Structure formats: structure tokens, C-alpha cells
Amino acid sequence: MTSGQIAAFHALLTPAGQHLLAEADAAELHADPLAAATRLRRAALEGPDPAAAPAGGQPVEPAQLVNAALTQARLRGRAREKFGAAADRMYFTPAGLEQATRGAVARYRAHRFAAAAAVPDGATVGDLCCGIGADLLALARAGLPVEGVDLDPLTVAVATANVEALGLGAAARVREGDAARTPPGRYAAVLCDPARRGRRGRIFDPDAYAPPWRTVLDLARGAAAACVKAAPGLPHELVPEDAAAEWISVDGEVKETALWFGPLRGAPRQATLLRGSAPAGTADAAGPPDRATLVADPGLGDPPLAAPGRYLYEPDGAVVRAHLVAEAAAEVGGALLDPHIAYITADRLVPTPFCRAYEVLDVLPFSLKRLRAVLRERRVGIVTIKKRGSAVDVERLRRDLRLSGPNALVVVLTRVGDRPICLLCSEVSAP
């Protein structure tokens, strides 16, 4: 991180920078980068002094300020999916936005902290590796005093600006520091979100996180209560015995694994499905999002097996990641098609938030020629292809089907034992 980038960001917070950022945001100038740069350079010359140094710091040239404004405008556009309307007042870095907790998840987690009474009155939550401050802001909104810690000075500046922009300075603060060196007992509770992206992209090995996995767990155990955020694919064998594991999805997409320690622990293993990914107009809401939680039942045993019935249930990804398919099958009184594949079948339609339901119209041994013929007979021109336990290349299959027609179907590719099959389905809504 260069001093020039930090100076440019601080300059963005001055009247000159805010003038340019408003121009960029209002016109959505990022749609035409050349025109955007030209217009903003003109606005920089016509607006407040663009070279004025913020608070006596390093002077910033107009071109640097224009680039900073354009970058923020583009990032705000991308951030609306995670943060809704609040994104238009927030600040980001590319890496910070990529790893930032989605608004619905941050609100849910903050209210879990608050509801557990794990933080004594007046005590502070430590948000270690706070990034641009998504969880920090949610914790503050939930009424918890919180201090964010991050090693990167630009990230600290961005998180601080977000605290001020959303009017949360009375509850939240941010400091530059090495989270890995946090002494035990400094905070009443901690949230630790280690960096899971490097120069080459996502990091899948928890030991390569920053801080590494063992250090993260030590930080969690150094507080009376803690939550650790990890990737959705965290292996079950890496979940320590003193933690409860929760796989979280938003609108059907698995977002993270959360490990809970101390009084924040709930069921040892669960899947939580959140609805609504911060739609416009609700991003500043202090309340938790709608949710449904499925908890492991140790006495349940293996689910039964059955041939395809009238309905097929596709468990949410968080349910699958949490190894709770048997619990989902019990919810609908269903059975598995195959003991190793997360598809549930049943003869009746049962309302459940944990699965998508499809009516099975036909079951075929998998054959391209046969499948194409049946779809053409049904005048199907639009197919949604889903697969589990199948080696078929979905995009190649879509091309090879060469379909046309007014109707739409869902094609599910799977197997029963060693026998590949396909199910022709229509999606239904439970009554």
C-alpha cells in the first residue's frame, strides 16, 4: 500500500473529493470510463481546490483525486448487492469489498452477540481483521461498543470513514494494529475474520489465512466469548471441540462458516438460512433478517432410501455443507435417492425453508439422444440443468440438446448407485 493511495483516499473526504464523488455517483459515470474521466477532470478544475492537502497531509494532484472518485463510484455500484442503499454512503477497497460480510449476515451475527448477553455493560467487542467494517457497523448498530483492528492503513482509513459516514462514531472506533498480537482478555468478546484472499485469489487452506488458523483459534479462546468467520468449505475436522459450527446462506447461496465460542455457542452443528440480502431501503435496518435454522439431531440416524417419488427436494447449500441432509429429509418425511447424494424424494409436498421443491414429471436413464427426444416431444426450449453426482458437462449438454419451443423444464442429472439418471421436473411452491 503506497502513501499516495492513502493520501488520495483522505483527499476524497475533503470538500473537493466529495464534490467529485457526488458527480461520479449521480451520473453513474463508470459506464463509460473515458467519458467519466474527462467529465470528472473538468469538475475537478471547476470545483474546490483539488490539490489541497487534507488536514495538512500530502498534497494530491487532480488526476489522483479523479481516479479515487471513479474507483469509489464503481465499488459503490458493486457494493449495493451486499449493503443495499447504505453502499451509496460507504467507502471501499476492491479487496475489502470482496471479503466484506454481506449485510444480512452481519446483522444476524451482531444480534446473536447482543442477544447472548456475552458482552457486559460498557465492555468492548474486538473486531479483529475488521476490513472495511461490515461487521463493525452491524455490531455498533446493535448497541455494542466495538473496536475494529486491521493491519492495513488504507483499510483502517476506509473503515473509519464508514463509521463516520453512517453516524456510528459514538459506538465504534478503528485502530491500526496486528490483530494476531491481541493480548488475551483485552476484549470481552471478539469477532475474527482472517484474510482469505491473496495476490493469486482465494485461499482455501486455513493454515494460509492471515492470521493462520491456529492463531485465529487462539485469539478466539483469548476472550470470554468469540466468533470466527471462515470459508463455507471449512472441513468439519478443523472445527474444534470447544466450538459450535454454523453454515450460513443468504437467498440460497452459502456465504460462510461461523464458529462460536463460550456463551455464544448454540447447537454444536447447524445451518442458518437468511432471507433478503439487504434490499434497497432496508440497508440501515437495525433488526435481524428473517431466518430459518436447522439443527443436528444426533439420534436421527441415516435417512431411508427410495426410488424417485412425485417430488424431489434439493436441500439448501448450507444444509449440505453442515451435513444435515438427514434432518432435512425428516422435515419432509422423505428419503434419499442415493446414500451419498443430497437429493431427497417424497410423495407429498411439505412446506420447508430448507429445500427447493420440484414435481417429478419423468425419470429416464441418462442418454443424450433419449433426453433430447423427450424434451422435443414436450416442446421444451428453456431448460434449467442441475446436477449432483453426475460427471456430465452442463454447458456442453445444453449446446448438444439444441432445443426450441415455448415450454420450460428443470432437468436434474444424478445417479442411483452406478446408474446415471435424469429427472424432468417443474419447480413448485409448497402450499
Helical content stands at 25-40%
The end-to-end span amounts to 55 Å
Gross morphology is globular
Can you tell me the CATH superfamily of the largest domain? Vaccinia Virus protein VP39
Number of domains: 3
Number of helices: 13
The mean pLDDT is 88
Instruction: Count every beta strand, where a strand is a DSSP E run of 2 or more residues.
Output: 18
Structural class, please?
alpha/beta
List low-pLDDT spans.
277-283
* Strand residue content: 25-35%
What do we call the CATH topology of the largest domain? Rossmann fold
Provide the gyration radius in Å.
Answer: 25 Å
Largest sheet: 9 strands, mixed
Q: Name the CATH architecture of the largest domain.
A: 3-Layer(aba) Sandwich
Architecture overview:
With about 425 residues, this protein is an alpha/beta fold. It folds into three domains: about 5-75, no CATH class; about 95-295, 3-Layer(aba) Sandwich (Rossmann fold); about 310-430. It has 13 helices and 18 strands. The protein has helices spanning about 5-10, 15-25, 35-45, 60-85, 95-100, 105-115, 135-140, 155-165, 215-220, 315-320, 325-330, 370-375, 395-400; strands spanning about 125-130, 145-150, 170-175, 190, 195-200, 200, 225-230, 245-250, 255-260, 270-275, 290-295, 310-315, 335-340, 340-345, 355-365, 380-385, 405-415, 420-430. The strands form three sheets. The protein has a nine-stranded mixed β-sheet with strand order 3-2-1-4-7-9-8-10-11, sandwiched between helices. It has a seven-stranded mixed β-sheet with strand order 13-14-12-15-18-17-16. Strands 5-6 form a two-stranded antiparallel ribbon. Strand 16, helix 13 and strand 17 (about 405-415) form a beta-alpha-beta unit. Helix 2 packs antiparallel against helix 3 and helix 3 packs across helix 4. The longest helix is centred in the first third of the chain and has 22 residues, at about 60-85. The chain is globular, with a radius of gyration of 25 Å. The N and C termini lie far apart (about 55 Å). The model is unreliable at about 275-285 (pLDDT under 50). Pfam families: Methyltransf_25 (PF13649), Thump_like (PF18096). This is SAM-dependent methyltransferase. Keywords: Methyltransferase, Transferase. One of its GO terms (biological process) is methylation. One of its GO terms (molecular function) is methyltransferase activity.
